[in-house]
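Per your request, structure below.
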């Protein structure tokens, strides 16, 4: 199932269906977290633990880990809940525990696929000047490139899935491609 979801995410991105790609991407840490931590019943914990271990720790700004906002498991879980349950692609900073990730302005950016992609997020803390002295206002911003976010989640989920397929035995479903079935029937005749 993970490979099918990733294929759909890639198809959505190729067709600039950014919100579809984002919603499917935000599901992957849920699935991988269930595989990694099958005995943990708290979905939130599983999600955040998996994301932080396989994605989030690489999102921190080196040397400023505790200062600048980054896409932590807590931030992405908050985005997941707001987007998938309320249709709101934003975060609620009051629901975040990490002080550095209490983002005041969370912005999603989209861009079409290019021959050569350079996908960048940006974060910052606003400062102002009072006379000659620079004063940190503490207002935190984060601009998320949706294509990049989908890419980092899918790349890590794909790698985790490929290395741990045996842990994903909890899927119990049937998905029938009727077009493929009809084509097989025509070939048999």
């Amino acid at each position: 199932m993970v490979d099918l979801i990733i294929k759909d995410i890639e198809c959505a991105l190729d067709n600039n269906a950014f919100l579809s790609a984002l919603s499917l991407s935000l599901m992957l840490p849920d699935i991988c977290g269930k595989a990694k931590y099958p005995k943990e019943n708290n979905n939130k914990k599983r999600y955040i633990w998996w994301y932080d271990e396989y994605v989030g720790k690489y999102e921190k700004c080196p040397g400023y880990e505790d200062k600048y906002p980054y896409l932590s498991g807590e931030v992405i879980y908050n985005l997941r809940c707001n987007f998938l349950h309320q249709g709101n692609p934003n975060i609620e900073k009051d629901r975040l525990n990490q002080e550095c990730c209490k983002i005041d302005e969370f912005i999603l950016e989209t861009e079409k696929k290019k021959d050569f992609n350079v996908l960048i997020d940006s974060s910052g803390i606003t400062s102002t000047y009072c006379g000659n002295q620079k004063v940190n206002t503490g207002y935190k911003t984060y601009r998320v490139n949706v294509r990049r976010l989908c890419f980092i989640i899918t790349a890590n989920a794909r790698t985790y899935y490929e290395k741990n397929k045996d842990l994903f035995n909890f899927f119990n479903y049937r998905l029938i491609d009727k077009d493929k079935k009809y084509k097989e029937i025509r070939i048999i005749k």
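The helical segments are 2-14, 18-36, 43-54, 73-86, 146-163, 178-188.

Regards,
D.
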